[in-house]
Records
---
Amino acid sequence: MQPAERRRVAVARVEPVGAYTLLVLRNDGGDVGRPGQFFMLQAVPEPAAAYLPRALSAAWADEHELAFLVEERGAGTRALATAGEVEVLGPLGQGFRLDEGPALLVGGGIGAAILPWLARLMPGRCNALVGFREEAQAVCAALIDADTEVVLEPVLVTRPLAERLPVAASVYACGPGPMLQAVAALCAEHDVPCQLAMEAAMACGFGACYGCAVEIDGEWKRLCVEGPVLEAERILA
Amino acid sequence: MPDLRTELCGLELAHPLVNGSGTLDALVAGTLGLSAFVTKTVTPQPRAGNPPQRIAETPAGMVNSIGLANPGIDRFCEHHLPRLAELGVPLVVSLGGWSREEYALAVRRVGALPQVAAIELNVSCPNVDTGCISIGTDHAETRALLERCRAETDLPLLAKLSPSVADVSSIALAAAEGGAAGLVLINTVRGMAIDRDTLRPLLGGGGGGLSGPAVKPVALHAIYHSHAATGLPIVGMGGVAGAQDCIEFLAAGATVVGVGTALFRDPGLPARIVAELPALLAAGGFDTPGQVVGIAHRRDHEPQVELEGAGR
């Protein structure tokens, strides 16, 4: 019942990946949970302008390292990308259930960050569709070890998805809210099993602050407790 | 070693650290070593809360606009309270409402339950338009609310007050006159964040409540003056982030100290504060937290430690 202890870990390496930054933390055997779960990360020392930790799901993780693809949006993420040490709380929340059989990974923007781990855990049975606003963001698609189709705006990732549906695979999706709504609707239309990893601003990550409410099952519920991975039908009105 | 045991309005607490209402779901995360659990505010009817976005980070803190999301008193009493009672710490149930009679009905109901040790009357939530804070920012309404609720239970009633008034100590005095056994100071400070892209209010509720280290001086001022005005036991909170903050809140006049926003960053914080408090008390020459309470008001107190950089 207790949330995991916060622990301070060293940054093993930081690499630019196009528009994003790959932040690899030394794990030293800590629990990594499963893809889609998340960690609260805070740079040490914390920047004056970022009092709260940032919720990020791992790009991949094992006993040796925790890797995160970071999109610098403000002081907190900028500090993470230049940190020497990071306070880590997690894994938290509900991750992906890995189904048997073929998998179709669908990512939009920084949402593609969590797909490499899924591809690693389901080798040889993953295809991926990822969409980005610009070329520099699309560089991260190379981290996904799968047969990957990349689209750039104005083409949205839902276009190739619609072309492939119905598909004999389970869909695992992560991206902006409107994209996930569209993915959920398309999969429901074709009766394809679909899990979504959603995003919301979080202060705590363990159910305390009620800040991350999103509409789930027709009501505002805490994403950190119910998700961040949800069965797609739970967000369809 | 100093003894941390603390008494608050007849409640025997293992130490003086509790949570602020609405800053912990003990059914999800446990009690984290706190000596009592204060529930999120419960209202007569269920409330979905305010639309997202509900939180915004600010310098040294955050603004929230949760909007008293809660399951309503029926579901709370039937489903939540029995499980909270298994946590093994005294339970303080926080109640909110839109009229004196609503509070009174809720107090009668909750006050009759054996699992409940004390009741907090939240008359200070900044995220609702009517009731609640409009009661707690008015002297006569506050006094009348406490008098009305006092008639419904023998349990201690703690009035949780807003600092967003001209003089919180005068509201505290009105609560004392109405029969409050103690005070909870402070609720969040009314605040707002503007979205840097749209230049519109960032939070779904428009405004919100500011918390975190940014409000600590506001909290200390409210506690200091309310202690002087009423002499009531105070649960002091607002920006507490470590053991030294606890000592300062006790000195200002708090008997018990609450953590909230700092808990969001680090659920290990309460255990660390409780571990550090004895040595900090001992360094000041204190045997109990109680010896520190209100010491900032005393002119005869001679500090035991040389204060660095204080020009001494």
---
Amino acid sequence: MPTPETDIVVDDPTAPADNSPAVVSTRTVEIVVSLLLLALAGLFCFDNWRTGIAWEADGPQPGYFPFYLGLFLAGASLYGLVTAIVTRTGAAQTFLTRDQLRRVMQVFIPTLLFCLFTQWLGLYVASFLLIAGFMRIIGRIALWKSLLTAFLFAVIMFFTFDVAFDVIMPKGPLEAAFGY
Amino acid sequence: MEAFGLLLHGFQVLLTWKTLAVMMVGLVLGIFVGVLPGLGGPNGVAILLPLTFTMDPTSAIVMLSCIYWGALFGGAITSILFNIPGEAWSVATTFDGYPMAQQGKAPEALTAAFTSSFIGSLAAVLLITFLAPGIAAFALQFGPPEFFAVYLLTFCSFVGLGREDKHKTIISMTLGLLLAGIGMDTVSGTLRMTFGWNELLRGINFLVAVIGLFGISEILLTMEERLALRGHTASIGLRVVLRVWKDLPRYWVTLLRSSVIGCWLGITPGGAIAASFMGYNLAKRFSKDKDSFGKGRIEGVFAPETAAHASGTSALLPMLALGIPGSGTAAILLGGLMVWGLNPGPLLFVEHKDFVWGLIASMYLGNIVGLVLVLTTVPVFASVLRVPFSAIAPMIVVSCAIGAYAIQNATFDIWLMLVFGVVGYVFKKIGIPLAPFTLALVLGNRAEDAFRLAMIGAGGDLRVFWSNGLVGSITTLALILLFWPLLSPLFERASRLWRPADGSRAA
């Protein structure tokens, strides 16, 4: 019988620590989300009320269906808000620890910047920057590997979508210089 | 036997080199997506959807469904070798699959998983082949009231039968329905809930929301955890495969039971996860040797995998026959159908015979090809996990953005995707289920249209939903399911009132 062995090992140099202090509890987040949903429901209801929620001779006006959905949403959110405030069990549950928040931000902020850069530089250049930067800074992978991977990925994506499948992506000054 | 002839025709449509190539590409991409952490069936299909925009609908749906099969196969690889369930429905597979890998029996466990996936899918595809045309033919008689009643039934069964908090399911569903209503109202042409914002005129695209909700949010969630992993490699030899297959008949009861459970739960919405656990638990309960479960018993791999795949596949039945998806992934496939200008529902069987039977034939062929492919290439895919997540994460983000942009060529959609990513992340963490949201977003407009057309037809009389036996019973059933959590204790009390007589005798 072959001996069991672990053949594949991947390390995570910037992993969150288990004992990191909590930033926010699940209960707080539930309350905030309920309030936001309640506000959204109110906004939708108001807009549909303006559009018209009455019945005409031949059926409901355009706002009728969404107006009542908005009421349902408001009701369910209110229920969620009250239960979150009344019950104490969720208070101890951690929504996010400080280390986890750091990690989530490490991926969220680059993604945000990527979306922003896509508008000016085009998608392919932005994706090169995102992949190379992410691999180098967060993964601590060797610079040449990061640059090479990012370059290859962007080029392959370009040929797959823009050339082979005719799915046109937003482009910036670099692509324009090559005549695309 | 009409179905059989049509199925043969479907195979004819399918057996061209181009379609077969598309099928292989789809399967490889699918397994890839299933193996990678932070991706899975629904996001994989959603992200890769843009690739299919320039294809003809049949090739496109073949590719998408093969991505789906591939993802289902791929999930088993990480569950067994790494103890990481790629999907929620693979959790039950880790109970016995990972212990087997630790005992050096990874090839057997993998063979068992792939084979039982194949059997489960096959059972469900047979069901689709012979049941779907009948249901579709029956549904052709449906008018707007009947359709609205069926939509209502779908939504109500989510609320009544789901295991999440009821109010959270309602929040998720109403939010989805509301967002579906944004933009131009299809009946009257009035603008709704756009707040004078031009970007919202088009409405919120379902696929953009899905890419954000499942793709981006999954990356955020995955990053929270420690991503170090250790696992086994395995290659499957022909001898192992034959040995496992030789033992297969001994487990026919388990396989059959799990297939039935899977098919049943797959047709009702949101079933794959429940099916895999139920398959596992029942196999354990009926086993003579209960204690050996969880310690690397091959039956513990057969049972959940068969059930999960049977339900994953049979979820396509209501989508094809009625235009109502039975799972998140089926909802995305449905979104795809609409992109290609096909109107999902019973008419599909009449107007697009080639398409429907090509798809059904591709389910057979895709599963056979997939089984062979996955048995021979396991080592390659297992080593995909060697690639650090910090390289994969940004690539997934880029793929998501490409997918979101390509749908309507709008940069606004990339931002929308990001917003939905954050929403999905928060919702998942506080237990608001995403499946009802997805379903509501894709069905919202159709449900509302059906409601208003029914109202216009009946002159605004709500009694139209009880106007004949069919629509009346569907509507009533929907309401019963909605209030099921309140009603079931009543039923129990009532049955207890009946029982004390023989209860006392027993005592």
